[in-house]
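Hi R.,

Here are the chain sequences for the assembly we discussed:
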Amino acid sequence: METKEAIKKRISVRVYDKRPIPKEVLESIIDAGRLAPTARGVEPWEFIAITDKSLLGRIGALANNGRFIADGTACIAILCKDTKYYLEDGCAATENILIAAADAGVGACWVAGDKKDYCERVKSLLGASAELKLVSMIAMGYPKDTNPPKARRPLASVLHWEKFSSK
Ligand SMILES: Cc1cc2nc3c(=O)[nH]c(=O)nc-3n(C[C@H](O)[C@H](O)[C@H](O)COP(=O)(O)O)c2cc1C
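And here is the predicted structure of the full complex:
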């Protein structure tokens, strides 16, 4: 699939069927996260791939805006060392993973980590050390339904050539 096609096709998928995602597919998707750019090239991240159904259920129970994690067949937790640009770096990896998942036909949804009060509880459940920040979790599973992408603000209304202009 062309990169732009995968970007256009990507949507947040929160309803999954029960087919497991093969390990090599998950590894290839996570590899795309590892290849994201990082400020100063520090690669501050760790990726935890969770496929155990009872663990997925416990994460879903903690993450009150990501309850559907419990219904998926995998979840990727993206954690970063507390570097100056950890949030930007972790978000770059998150987006790469979402696009790679779309490319592989795997449904996925970004679930907020950083700033959420459940972060420490999720970290402790996953055995992550205190110095790591939970940037995001990505719920995953093969999509149960097909849904079109959401409408976006048109390019002409968000693109400014040379200087900002009010439109
Ligand atoms: C930083 C960030 C945090 C998000 N957190 C959540 C979340 O906690 N729960 C959720 O259901 N969706 C979450 N989303 C997904 C957005 O709701 C979704 O991307 C947005 O509504 C646009 O829809 P689309 O992804 O289908 O294009 C998050 C997205 C981003 C970028």
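The mean pLDDT is 97. The pocket of flavin mononucleotide is lined by residues 11-12, 65-66, 109-112, 150 (CB under 6 Å).

Let me know if anything looks off.

Best,
T.
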